[in-house]
Queue: 4 jobs
Job 1
Amino acid sequence: MVTQLTGDLRILHAFAESAGQMCVPLPGQIDTSDNVLQALGEASREFAELCREVCADMSDGEITDNELDRIETARGALVAGLHHLGETIRARNLAAKPAFVRLAP
């Protein structure tokens, strides 16, 4: 599959959008580096971007198809950012546990 060979997820995202869905990375499939504050800042930025988009698009009291697409894109980015934040926090939690606990299934 082209997406797997190139790592380009645009086709996958377009397919998901056409089906009224969105893609969220699975745990373990994204960078889970232990930088909780950076992940929190990124999720906060994504939330602010969603708020900015919704407020700007609502200025005339209507939501066009293009505006809806931009809102959905911003919403998806926020979901992904929150997912990454959760994974980063889980990794921090696990790192604080004794080795025998971390190895348990």
Job 2
Amino acid sequence: MQLTPRQIVEALDSYIVGQQEAKRAVAIALRNRYRRSRLEEAQREEITPKNILMVGPTGVGKTEIARRLAKLVDAPFVKVEATKFTEVGYVGRDVDSMVRDLVETSLRLVKDRMGKDVENAAEQNAQERILDALLEQERGAVKKPPQNPIEALLTPSREPQLPPEEHERRKTRREELRLRLLAGDLEGQIIEIEVEDQQPGDTIPGTDMSMSDMLGSFMPKKKKLRKVSVMEARRVLKAEEAQKLIDMDAATSEAVYRAEQDGIIFLDEIDKIAGRAQSGQPDVSREGVQRDILPLVEGSTVNTKYGPVRTDHILFIAAGAFHVAKVSDLIPELQGRFPVQVNLQPLTVDDLRQILTQPKNALIKQYAMLLGVDGVALEFREEALDEIAELCVRVNEAKENIGARRLHTLLEYVLQDLAFSAGESGPETVAIDRDYVRAKLSHMAEEFDLSRQII
């Protein structure tokens, strides 16, 4: 289903309060992707996304807007910190790694979707392997330790031929166990299964590949024995069997295509790499990183272990507070590659009050669900919400302005005692009013009043 910009904004409104300018900008960028996909191929190649630069204080919704946008259309999305990168040739992460991370995310999305298509077959195969383990356990057969890959390659195992009577007896017993397994009678029984050893290897410097990735197509998978319950074995073996049933060539091909055409890279803290070096020494984590990011945003090809990936049509959304640096401190070439600049506004008391209750994942709703598990019904009065929102603004002004993240701190203090004792006295209803909030947050109010008196 393709959403119009108005529908996209309405969907974002379900999770993010205010910031209509930023929502409109990302909604238009997303819709333009759909419009581009309807054009002829020659025309599609000429149209590149209009990258977005979000400017605003921390905690006002910059990251959440980009993350919710990606979830809305199930697009590959990665969030990276610009400060984590260093210029190519120096110790640290190079900027190409963000594109490799995007392809990994895209592959995970594709495999999840393909896994649902083969879910029934994978579950059936996992069930057969569990039955094999249960039968071996009944016979008292001792599992041999898994062979190393070289030994497994040179000496393939052969199953001994069973007499017809023994074969029929085992078949009958297998069906009996199958019925008990389907009835859920064996979920807690411990069995020993053989699974692939998924230990990651060290990557080769400058690439996203390890030696095991390079030799994977030539060497058999390393195995290990695990003792787990039948319930856990079903989960592990089902995932392993689904992996075998997925066509990895098709999956990687689709993952690369989706990363190129639908990928979104959110480049946070870009203001921290703004500005030029004051001395004659090279600045490997500021202007040098800007120069390295520029080819990616302009459009280049990055080599990954899944093949070359073009960045021409990846949507880049950069964000920063720009308290100290200014947008004009970025190198001009990089500024030109983010033609859409939107300013996010600081949150008001009304905004913070809405954040507490209105979004689908509102904080008050989250705490109500958590405490509801222990039989505590929370009731927040309107006056209590007003008090929390007002105190949030005052503390942000007196200390560091961290936006809506301050609400997490305040609510933790308000509900800390209740969360500690919940469930001890049975089901109860607790009403939170202004006096309750003031009593729990009195220490913060005192700190605030003291800070105003200090000159």
Job 3
Amino acid sequence: MEIIYSEKLGYCPGVRNAVSQANNIAEQAAAEGKRAYCIGRLVHNNAVVQAMGRMGMEFIDEPDGHVPGTALISAHGIPDSLRDRFVRAGFTLIDGTCPRIIENRNKILQQARMGRLIVIIGIPGHSEVRCLEGTDLFPGVPVSSVVVGSKQDIAKIPDGFPLAVAAQTTVDRDLFDSLVELIKERFPDVTVLKTICPEPLQRQAALRHLCERCPAVVIVGGLHSANTTVLAEVARRNGCRAYVCERSGELPEEVFSHPVLGIASGASTPFAQVSAVAKDLSEHV
């Protein structure tokens, strides 16, 4: 079996920064005999989360019932109201929010101050989307927003408001463009914000190039990772068979029937995890 690697592999810069901060916090807490927490999942990759757990980091969603300590805000960020609850409970917060998401929150806040209703195109309930929704216009008062994950959700947008449309950083570009077009058909005053991160777009472009050379690809990444899911959809749209896994043991036997196989990864996947999957594939008998 010939294995061809995508030109974009390993962590994106935002995830790399969050994982580095998590390592530092866990090591320092262990040395000082203190508690170390991460608010939410650090990243959407089970292997990474489990590794942090072995270092003593606890993953929590809210402060209630936990002894105050140092808490890292995950790469996807958290709503302002939740941040305030942790501070009031006595936690020391370290902000691991992806810089791109911080920038997008500022863009949303600026538009909300101008009186625009915020439309967020993304996965309803996703931690990043909840973070964007939870951007406070005033202390304790979040921006007015509507989450749109499909064309059916456009019906939830009320009439009579100027709109500012933002996107989850990892949303599929084609989906975003199609939904924006439908929104503009219905609403007369729409400002479209540039909030899709260029890094996943570069991964998608590299994957399309890989699909030109391979009939099938293995995408190594979290099974619940939004950007990994988008990569699989991109591969399939480009006529390539796509398999998603975190470990090679999760792959079906048919994957080994391909004489040429591409390897790509999500933005929350360390290169060591990619290498381990590729090694198992190449050594399979």
Job 4
Amino acid sequence: MLLPVYLIELGFAPFEVGVLATASLLGSALLTVGAGLLGARYDHRQLLLAAASLMIATGAAFAVVHDYALLLVVAFAGTINPSAGSVSVFVPLEHAALSGAAAPAARTAMFARYSLVGALAAAAGALAAASPEVLAAAGVERLTAVKLMFVLYAALGAAGGVLYARIPRRAPAATGPPRRSAPRGAS
């Protein structure tokens, strides 16, 4: 929700804002599909750390880049989400990591807690979206206040990276067709 405000503050036309938001959603969707395809073959911890690094880079880039073409590339390749929905590379990776971390009988309770924390984080993010207005009322230039939100986004990516680094490494799943066992009596 902050992205369109930022782009308009930079002076971009509504059509340009729409194109950039669309590129962001398309890039997020492709990144999420890619995570789904790679998630079973690679260590979830490494993929989550890579996603957190991309989040840091995205936040930092949005805080300093003003050129439309570069912003378009950052929006497409980054992790920024211009909508209130959960279109994120993190969700399928976190789900995969969590499903293997709990016994089957405990998974429902674990995912309930995960959903609760996600909803509370979304609520905190919605509340934080008012921060630029509060900072502007306190005398901070509005564009600077919005840029600080992207710095905060990068900092949250760093915090996520610290948490993801605590996930135990997992051996990648074997690729290829499953091996068949020899029929009984065959040698």
